[in-house]
Specification:
This protein is mainly beta. The protein has one domain: Sulfite Oxidase, Chain A, domain 2. The protein has three helices and eleven strands; from the N terminus they run βββαββαββββββα. β6 and β7 form a beta hairpin. The radius of gyration is 19 Å and the shape is globular. InterPro entries: OxRdtase_Mopterin-bd_dom, OxRdtase_Mopterin-bd_sf.
């Protein structure tokens, strides 16, 4: 004789997917920056990809915004422990920007107006996983969130999504960026809780 009542289903499971470990959900979009917000006029803005041999591919604002656009909806996760679900962006995929760039590099170092840098494996910028985003929630990206354009790499902690991005230098060897030099994890996978060096 069984001891389970027929039809008993137990506690209902949440339809919401789990957050990465140590994260809490927020409806806000907290503003965190390592320094002052730079003012970047659109008539002088440019985005430059520099290969390991020094060759450059560059776009003005008009050229950049004329490229094919994508509208990813993604969850984002900050190392300070907040997560925000279903954020809506518009931008240009790194697959588009890297198309035709001749490189043997395996790493990238993103550079921002204001001097910020962060490093990533080049593979993490490809395959539909990264964008240079210039609109958020249907509006131009505000300066406090990285406007006019920021890197968007949502599968890593958000410090890897460099605000005010101005270019990417392709490299054959890894080079730590601003926070990585200060003790943050070199990769920053939120699902493995890679917040600091040694995690």
């Amino acid at each position: 004789m069984g001891i389970v009542t027929p039809g008993f289903q137990g506690r209902p499971r949440s339809a919401e997917p789990a957050l990465p470990p140590g994260q809490y959900l927020t409806e806000d979009f907290p503003v965190l920056s390592a320094g002052p917000t730079p003012k970047v006029p659109l008539d002088t803005w440019e985005f430059v990809i520099t290969t390991e041999t020094g060759e450059e591919v560059r776009w003005s604002w008009a050229e950049f915004t004329a490229l094919p656009q994508e509208t990813p909806t993604v969850d984002i996760h900050c190392v300070t422990r907040w997560s925000k679900r279903q954020t809506d962006w518009q931008g240009v995929s790194l697959d588009v920007l890297l198309d035709g760039v001749d490189t043997e590099a395996t790493y990238a170092l993103a550079h921002s107006y204001g001097g910020y840098t962060t490093n990533l494996p080049l593979a993490d910028l490809r395959g539909g996983r990264a964008w240079v985003a210039h609109r958020y929630s249907g509006r131009d990206l505000p300066p406090e969130h990285g406007g006019p354009a920021r890197l968007l790499v949502p599968h890593l902690y958000f410090w890897k999504s460099a605000k005010w991005v101005r270019g990417i230098r392709l490299k054959t060897m890894d080079e730590p960026g601003f926070w990585e030099t200060a003790g943050y994890h070199d990769y920053g996978d939120p699902w493995r809780e890679q917040r600091y060096a040694g995690d």
